[in-house]
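Lab meeting, action items carried over

1. Structure of the two-component assembly. Owner: GW. Status: complete.
Input record:
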Amino acid sequence: MSPNDSPATPEAAAAGHTPDVAAGTAPIITVSGVSKTYKGGFQALKSVNLDIRKGEIFALLGPNGAGKTTLISIICGIVTATTGRIAVAGADINDDYRTAREMIGLVPQELTTDAFETVWNTVSFTRGLFGKPANPAHIEKVLKDLSLWDKKDDRILTLSGGMKRRVMIAKALSHEPRILFLDEPTAGVDVELRQGMWAVVRRLSQSGVTIILTTHYIEEAEEMADRVGVISGGELIVVEEKAKLMCKLGRKQLTLHLQERLAEIPPALADYGLDLAADGCDIVYTYDSQQDHTGITGLLTALRDSGIKFRDLHTTQSSLEEIFVSLVRSPK
Amino acid sequence: MNFRAIGAIYVFEMSRTLRTLLQSIVSPVISTCLYFVVFGAAIGSRISEIDGVSYGAFIVPGLIMLSLLTQSVSNAAFGIYFPRFTGTIYELLSAPVSALEIVIGYVGAAATKSIALGLIILATAALIVPLNIAHPLWMAAFLVLTAVTFSLLGFIIGIWAETFEQLQIVPLLVITPLTFLGGSFYSIDMLPPVWQTVSLFNPVVYLVSGFRWSFTEISDVGVGVSLGMTCLFLVICLMIIGWIFKTGYRLKT
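Predicted assembly:
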């Protein structure tokens, strides 16, 4: 057992807020002060603290080489941490590795498969490796869910890249894990299959499986995740509910489509920091939606007073991608 | 103990063997038959009996050992090297299996395969030369012990090797010469005294000698010494493997 079972989240402290939702449920994974320095001196992780909540979909974002895969590999037992402790549902990943690992299914980033095995055999092999009794009905269901059923007797080397990726997901699901790690699961998978894969992930999530994913497609994280962690240079720079993160860090823009072109912003509107766009046909106002006074009423009044008329307006909110890029470029 | 995992690894490895039946079983049997033809029939007919045993029958235990050693080493080495090479080792490392379970699965399969091979060669030899096995149980014991010990050695090589070349080099440059110089085809007594002494540093001498004793009751060194030395190699290999898993050598970063 790990001493890190308490829901008083170190991550919360690191992210600068008090535990709220997490306080009710004990985290299913607790990462405490984990760092990793590879031979040769490269420090892939710098004292990472993170709690994963039971049943959530957690998206880990970060540029290449940020430490995402290292963190996942440490939790799953493939890489040894230099310092720190990790507990999975209270079981220390070193002292009680059987309990910890039985709960975890891992889909690694690299397409590594036993090329000469059939799909059925390789998926059944994984189930056996995780100590579960043979259950053809479960394997059949997993393969059908992933549209692999008609390929079950084919050797893996005959499959396409997208199918191999799904075989790896099938392997990870073969032993009915409570936690699923998906490291870049949709890389190289076409749009239709990607949708199918996310449908499977959603169903798993609904059945109570905790899902931790990394992806380069930020829109996927935006669509799928409950919470988002951003890792950069081996440090977890932010962990936040996706909605809150987008509110907190997302900026909103109000665009006004003018009836007549403006050559320049009138001096009366100088205080609003407006931008002219579309050759002077649009005025763009950037504001923080979290503030009590967004300044919109004032702006509209000032516009009327200046005799500027507009025919349409719309607001946009920055996407997770923009938030991500700004976070990674200027870490706190 | 995760017996299902051991079973899964064992079945996986054995099915790999069945997929490559030609390479795994047929080719060693053919090459052994060639040895019998060349050494047993062609040359052996000009060599008088050794210690009252015809030369053809004399070389049978040595030939079985030759195949047993090389096949045990290469099977087990390939078995664990291949997942490292392809990357599928991630699955073993992230599964709830202990080092012991992994070793039992891989080494058990490799040893099973080479024991089967040894028995097939023995059966083949029985068709060519008259054979008499004086101590079948001892023969079986030496067969199993040797297969397990050298499969463990192969496992170590498979973890140590970083390229396919390194994987081949130990069997080729170390195991084969030691086997040929280990009394497979001759009795140590036939060597000049200096080389007899040198031979005693060759571990294979003890294996071949003990194994041959179980057939003919003739041995270069005492059977107890043979057994003791075989067990010693076994323990050394186990200790090295224990160290590998403890440190994660070449397995974990």
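2. GW to write a short summary for the group page. Key points so far: The longest strand of chain A covers residues 27-37. Confidence is low (pLDDT under 50) at residues 1-24 of chain A.
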